[in-house]
Specification:
The complex is a heterodimer.
Chain A lengths: L1 H28 L4 H6 L8 E2 L16 E9 L5 E5 L6 E7 L4 E6 L8 E6 L1 H9 L9 E4 L4 E9 L6 H9 L2 E4 L6
Parallel strand pairs in A: 6-7
Antiparallel strand pairs in A: 1-2, 2-8, 3-6, 3-9, 4-5, 4-8
Chain B lengths: L2 H27 L6 E3 L2 E3 L10 H10 L9 E6 L12 E7 L6 E7 L15 E3 L11 E5 L7 E3 L8 E7 L16 E7 L3
The chains are: A alpha+beta, B alpha+beta.
């Protein structure tokens, strides 16, 4: 009888331990977290527009009025510059690292002149750049990320059907490019 | 002589079975701690951040959604009405009042996994702060029912439970910890069946 009780207690203890292990390690191997899904959209350094229904990677706009584009990037070698501008009532962007933690987010009210212009790089790359800031980066928002891989989500709104074309244009022309150096 | 292996097998079954079951249950039951509840509405302002708790991180890794950043917006979901009963497509509901300050908000009826509910084409399943009709004091009243209503109306899916998703874009709410004072719109049941 005592043996049964002991077996049950040991089992419960093991279950609690396993529960902790599962909860703590799950984010690293689900294979369907947001970062993995964005990465499986396609190439790095390119914005992909999402549709109303889930695509092959399992991503969609989620909200009927929101239009979304995602870009996976790797700043190991060079920083990545995000640019977009257009006549939309609202846009917002968020940068995440490979563990899907938010690194930085902003919207059009906090931007310079209503245009999206962000450079994301490692602290070392940005320190190098800041020493002699190239003229084309004068108005750029510099964001530091300590992890080399990540993804950007760019959202805009189409509150009425007539805004749809502008929203689509805004996202289609958004740039997510490796910044190799000043173009001058 | 077979009792000892039996005990070991029992221990292992309880450990693995129980551990896996309770983990799945915990992840399906909630999106983690750190929820703010305002009436029927529930939001997780820190779900996308590094400081989210381990349950929230596991939950978001399994769900794989693109979450709103702090400066983007805050998403509230309502699975129950103000009285605490589960939202059901057989009943009709009314949302009245104001939202917390935000530049734009959107509201849509969603299925249980949070995707926009599938409705017959042509029926309105979503509304935003630009298209909603308001009272003179800028408050609004939205009817949510299967039958069409005058004024603001959101259609419901054919049957089953559903949820409502209200997203506030560019809102100070997302960054504030004193969300308790915020007034969210009321969500009341107005009747069930054809009444």
């Amino acid at each position: 009888m005592l043996r049964i009780l002991f077996a049950i207690l040991a089992g419960l203890f093991g279950a609690a331990l396993l529960h902790l292990v599962i909860i703590l390690s799950l984010p690293h191997f689900t294979g369907r977290d947001a970062a993995t899904r964005v990465a499986s959209e396609g190439d790095l350094d390119k914005f992909y527009l999402l549709g109303a229904a889930d695509d092959a990677a399992g991503l969609s706009n989620d909200d009927p009025f929101v239009r979304t584009a995602v870009c996976a990037f790797d700043i190991e070698e060079n920083p990545v510059r995000l640019t977009a501008k257009g006549n939309v009532p609202f846009w917002s962007t968020a940068l995440y690292d490979e563990a899907s933690n938010e690194v930085f987010s902003m919207n059009d009210r906090t931007s310079v002149g209503g245009a999206l212009d962000i450079l994301i790089g490692t602290p070392i790359q940005l320190t190098e750049l800041r020493k002699a800031l190239p003229p084309d980066l004068q108005k750029t928002i510099l964001v530091e990320s300590t992890r080399s891989e990540g993804y950007a989500v760019l959202r805009t709104l189409a509150p009425q059907a007539s805004f749809d074309a502008a929203a689509r244009n805004f996202l289609a022309e958004a740039g997510c490019d490796e910044y190799a150096g000043s173009s001058n | 002589m077979f009792r000892f292996p039996l005990f070991i097998a029992m221990t292992l079954i309880i450990a693995f079975g129980g551990g896996i079951m309770i983990s799945l249950y915990a992840l399906d039951a909630t999106a983690g701690f750190g929820a703010i509840k305002l009436g029927a509405w529930e939001a997780f302002p820190e779900l996308q951040t590094e400081s989210a708790d381990p349950y929230a991180k596991s939950h978001r890794a399994r769900a794989g959604r693109l979450l709103y950043g702090n400066a983007e917006g805050l998403m509230f979901t309502a699975k129950v009405d103000d009285a605490g009963t589960r939202l059901n497509a057989g009943c009709s509901y009314r949302i009245t009042g104001q939202t917390p300050p935000a530049r734009i908000w959107t509201l849509f009826t969603a299925d249980n996994s949070g995707n926009p509910a599938s409705l017959r084409t042509g029926l309105p399943g979503a509304m935003n702060s630009w298209t909603v009709l308001r009272q003179p004091d800028s408050s609004f009243s939205i009817d949510i029912s299967a039958q069409a209503r005058p004024g603001n109306w959101l259609a419901l899916p054919a049957a089953g439970t559903f949820q409502l998703v209200l997203t506030l874009f560019d809102t100070p709410t997302a960054g504030s910890s004193g969300v308790i004072d915020l007034a969210m719109p009321k969500l009341q049941k107005t009747g069930c069946g054809n009444a």
